[in-house]
Design goal:
By secondary structure, the chain is α+β, with helices and mostly antiparallel strands. It is built from 7 helices and 16 strands. The protein has one domain: Cupin (Jelly Rolls). The strands form 3 sheets. Strands 2-3-14-9-16-7-6-4-5 form a 9-stranded mixed β-sheet. A 5-stranded mixed β-sheet has the order 1-13-10-15-8, with no helix packed on it. It is globular, with a radius of gyration of 18 Å. The chain starts with 8 loop residues before the first strand and ends with a helix. Bound molecules: 2-oxoglutaric acid (AKG). It holds the Pfam family Cupin_8.
Amino acid sequence: MHSNERLPLQVDRVHAPSVEEFNRLYAEPGKPVLITGIVSEWDACSLWNSQYFNSLAGERSVPVKRMRNGAYLKARTELMKLADFLDVVNKEPVGNERVYLSERSVKDILPEIAGDYTAPPYIDSAKFAAVGYIGSHVHSQIHFHPFGKALLCQVTGRKRVKLFAPDQTPYLYQKLHFSKIEGEPVDLEKYPLYENVEYYECEVTAGEMLFFPIYWWHGVETPEFSSAVVFFWDDSRKLRWLPPTGIPLRYVPVFEIMSWIFKGKRMLKRILQSVRG
Ligand SMILES: O=C(O)CCC(=O)C(=O)O
């Protein structure tokens, strides 16, 4: 087992670009970028650590993903007391099983911390989701977002991210918007085409944010205690229905149906919550 030995490409790192610069240089051409000077201003950066989370909601049950070898697609969701979860996350890992508090709306899980950050100015839609990720020693399987753009805002710790342009899809063993490749290092006997892939690599440190354009593949390694918020917002239907070279057109209607299912589920949840008071 060994990894692709090509040299990674570099992601631009820029200081607080204006919204016009962000749109012209990154959002419109669909180019990832690391942005400094915005997340670092959040109160969250001086507040978020295990003690803080514990003091706010240590006794609360939260849904965590339990997975093996970075196999995010096969993860099971289970409820765990936040204090117990933080205990596990702060210890050196044993074996290859990991728990990850991920892909959940911050407001659903820890509404107390939602005032510690503000949505970045680059989000050009009133409808966006702010999703929390807390964990350590975890790997998020390579995937892309078929609905729109995202900004990964790193509050505590750091993440190592590999990004792959949409035209690298033939080397990534696509299964809908996920790659079948699990974890790092990549098993080249099982996934020999990966050896040809061209990729970008960067480290997102506390106070920075990384922009993921629609349809850009990315795999995320979280080597130490980390907390992050990812903002997602939808691109126009035109951009979604005209994917860049490399993304097979046949998947696009499937993604559209998935987006309606997700939206329907969210709406149902809101209705149930308001009925229950
Ligand atoms: O931080 C992570 O583990 C995954 C973040 C990510 O890939 C995403 O939000 O799409």
